[in-house]
Recover the amino acids of this structure.
């Protein structure tokens, strides 16, 4: 009798364990599916803007005078510009509105206005990236976007794409920093339209022009998320863009990560996929894109492998809030913008961190063409680069002012810049880095 009772208890325990295992698998499967659906449609509990903006995008009237062709991919997809503006002899470059918008914003603001406040962009991730899953528990993100006289539709598309394609449970907040904009549509009109994102967006307005570098530091000082994600004000994020960045930082808090930056053409605003590249720079401290060698992505993870990068492009990256403060944030002595991306890249590598490009994260970006105050911008960039060279390059700073040499003859050391036969730059501690900045400030 006793043996029968023991056997019955063992069978009951085994059955209970099997049911628990099956139930756990079921819950995990539902979580993954729910996560995918949230990325596709946004979170209806937080906001219902996605469908509203899609309907607006569908109903936008696009003048034929600008040679725009719109095609509908499917019933579920909004109208997408497949060939918005083909440059050629048939286009009238003397249109005053086009010239004024181009000189003001650095891209075709006519097309931008016609696109409206939201559009779907093609999923440019590798197939292997689409099969990846991420932990349910990830750090929270504060997304910081600074702007000065940005074109309204481009700015609002940036916000709309974030809200539509970011899981709300990892999005702590979006911090908008208005760096003393002059345009009327970035004042009351912007305040009115931001009401739809109530509860997720903080808007900070600087009382004087600070420049991109100090404006970002202002935004960071108001952030409460675990991770700071810096974006430009003329971006459009892609599907499942934030999870890969947060997952990498969760594994190593001293890892600073950048998405692959897809190209949004400044004239046609077509969204174009980018190949896998890394950031680098030359002896003139000019940022360059560098091709990734094929053997670097031939491992088990294939094209989803994180790529070590000597430098970041500057506008789009994610960093642990604690680590950002630990390394001293940006150099406050730099003005406006320019050179801060290389300065921060050197600071990361030389103060115990690592910089990677995450191919499974994609963000589109308009490469604006700067037409106004070109000489003033060049003076600021030159000043910032001289400051960078004198603070960080030590004995190698003598190479900075030299005329351009062939790329193969003079290169900084990996991972500080590119590939080289020179000795590596000295690795700094946080204390020595602070001493340098104090000496040069």
């Amino acid at each position: 009798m006793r043996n029968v009772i023991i056997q019955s208890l063992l069978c009951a325990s085994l059955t209970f364990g099997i049911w628990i295992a099956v139930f756990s698998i079921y819950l995990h499967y539902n979580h993954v599916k729910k996560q995918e659906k949230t990325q596709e449609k946004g979170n209806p509990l937080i906001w219902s803007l996605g469908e509203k903006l899609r309907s607006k995008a569908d109903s936008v009237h696009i003048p034929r005078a600008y040679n725009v062709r719109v095609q509908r991919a499917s019933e579920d997809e909004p109208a997408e510009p497949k060939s918005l503006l083909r440059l050629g002899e048939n286009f009238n470059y003397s249109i005053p509105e086009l010239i004024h918008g181009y000189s003001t914003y650095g891209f075709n603001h006519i097309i931008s206005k016609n696109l409206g406040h939201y559009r779907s962009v093609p999923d440019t991730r590798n197939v292997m990236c689409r099969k990846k899953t991420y932990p349910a528990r990830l750090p929270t993100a504060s997304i910081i976007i600074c702007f000065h006289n940005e074109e309204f539709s481009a700015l609002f598309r940036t916000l709309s794409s974030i809200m539509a394609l970011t899981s709300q449970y990892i999005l702590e907040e979006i911090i908008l920093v208005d760096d003393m904009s002059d345009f009327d549509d970035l004042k009351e009109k912007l305040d009115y339209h931001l009401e739809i994102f109530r509860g997720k967006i903080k808007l900070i307005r600087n009382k004087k022009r600070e420049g991109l570098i100090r404006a970002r530091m202002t935004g960071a000082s108001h952030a409460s998320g675990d991770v700071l994600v810096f974006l430009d004000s003329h971006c459009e994020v892609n599907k499942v863009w934030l999870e890969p960045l947060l997952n990498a930082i969760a594994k190593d808090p001293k890892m600073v990560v950048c998405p692959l930056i897809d190209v949004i053409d400044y004239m046609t605003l077509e969204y174009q996929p980018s190949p896998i590249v890394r950031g680098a720079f030359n002896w003139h401290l000019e940022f360059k894109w560098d091709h990734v060698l094929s053997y670097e992505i031939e491992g088990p993870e294939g094209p989803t492998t994180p790529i070590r990068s000597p430098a970041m492009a500057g506008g789009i990256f994610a960093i642990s809030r604690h680590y950002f403060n630990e390394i001293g944030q940006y150099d406050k002595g730099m003005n406006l913008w320019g050179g801060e991306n290389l300065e921060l890249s050197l600071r990361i590598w030389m103060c115990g961190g690592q910089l990677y490009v995450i191919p499974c994260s994609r963000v589109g970006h308009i490469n604006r063409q700067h037409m106004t105050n070109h000489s003033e911008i060049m003076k600021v960039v030159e000043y910032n680069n001289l400051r960078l060279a004198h603070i960080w390059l030590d004995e190698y700073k003598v190479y900075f002012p030299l005329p351009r040499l062939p790329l193969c003859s003079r290169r900084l050391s990996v991972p500080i810049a590119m590939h080289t036969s020179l000795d590596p730059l000295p690795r700094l501690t946080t204390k020595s880095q602070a001493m340098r900045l104090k000496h040069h400030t």
